């Protein structure tokens, strides 16, 4: 079919659309259970030793933080993390709908024991400022709401004003969020994530992993003097 100059340009369809005006709350590794947080955050849905693997208590008190990280230690995982109310894992294997609803399930599947969602990058924006974080837990409150996380539903009502996104203290500080706020978020592929403070720390951080691979590859190369000419 031929198009004339009067035809409107085609709109590019985003792979992952923005989820707009989502109530957003702050959570942290090591958080104790409370009235509006019935489950402590020493473990995540995908890591029973989350606090230990992170390196300690991700103290949200600004007086106890140094830049975007806790003042007492350097995190061993990315301090820019978040939670969405879906867990693709079941007690054994994956939830029956996961292969159908998780967009990247087939390409990331590594067996029944591992989540395909853990570590996925997410863009979060407040006003004209955006931050990038990795999906590291399921919540707030629910772990089964795929219709919102991957579909067009809105978050379900809950004790935190219908919150549909939990973010870490580092995300809070970068965006200047209140403890309960409103943001937009969307999934992003790693090649869409620009460098920033979210690229600096963590054994689970794609930036750090790729940098280490580059160093190892460089170290394994023979010196230039050893290459025959």
Written description of the protein model:
With 229 residues, the chain is an alpha+beta fold. The chain has one domain: Beta Barrel (Barwin-like endoglucanases). Helices cover 17% and strands 19% of the residues. The protein is built from six helices and eight strands. It has helices at residues 50-54, 98-101, 105-108, 146-149, 169-175, 206-220, and strands spanning 19-26, 65-66, 69-70, 81-84, 121-126, 129-138, 165-167, 180-187. The strands form two sheets. Strands 1-7-4-6-5-8 form a six-stranded mixed barrel. The protein has a two-stranded antiparallel sheet with strand order 2-3. Strand 2 and strand 3 form a beta hairpin. The N and C termini lie far apart (56 Å).
Number of strands: 8
Biggest β-sheet, characterized?
6 strands, mixed, barrel
Q: Provide the low-confidence segments as ranges.
A: 1-10
CATH topology label: Barwin-like endoglucanases
Quickly count the helices. 6
Question: Strand content of the residues, in percent?
Answer: 15-25%
User: Under the CATH scheme, which architecture would be assigned?
Assistant: Beta Barrel
Form type: globular
Helical residue percent band: 10-25%
Strand order across the largest sheet: 1-7-4-6-5-8
CATH 4th-level superfamily: RlpA-like domain
Task: Output mean pLDDT.
Answer: 90
Class by alpha and beta content: alpha+beta
So what's the CATH class? Mainly Beta
**N/C terminus separation:** 56 Å
Radius of gyration: 20 Å
Pattern of helices and strands: EHEEEHHEEHEHEH
Count of domains: 1
């Amino acid at each position: 079919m031929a198009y004339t100059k009067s035809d409107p340009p085609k709109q590019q369809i985003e792979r992952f659309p923005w989820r707009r005006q989502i109530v957003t709350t702050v959570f942290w590794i090591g958080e104790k259970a409370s009235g509006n947080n019935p489950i402590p955050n020493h473990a995540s849905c995908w890591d029973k030793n989350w606090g230990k693997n992170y390196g300690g208590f991700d103290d949200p008190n600004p007086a106890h933080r140094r830049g975007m990280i806790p003042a007492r230690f350097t995190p061993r995982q990315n301090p820019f993390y978040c939670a969405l109310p879906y867990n693709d894992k079941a007690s054994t294997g994956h939830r029956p709908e996961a292969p159908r609803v998780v967009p990247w399930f087939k390409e990331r599947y590594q067996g029944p024991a591992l989540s395909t969602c853990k570590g996925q990058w997410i863009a979060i924006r407040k006003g004209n400022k955006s931050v990038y974080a990795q999906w590291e837990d399921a919540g707030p409150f629910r772990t089964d709401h795929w219709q919102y996380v991957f579909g067009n539903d809105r978050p379900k009502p809950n004790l935190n004003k219908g919150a549909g996104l939990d973010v870490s203290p580092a995300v809070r500080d970068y965006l200047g969020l209140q403890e309960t706020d409103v943001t937009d978020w969307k999934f992003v592929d790693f090649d869409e994530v620009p460098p920033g403070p979210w690229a600096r720390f963590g054994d689970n951080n794609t930036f750090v992993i790729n940098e280490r691979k580059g160093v190892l590859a460089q170290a394994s190369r023979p010196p230039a003097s050893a290459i025959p000419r």
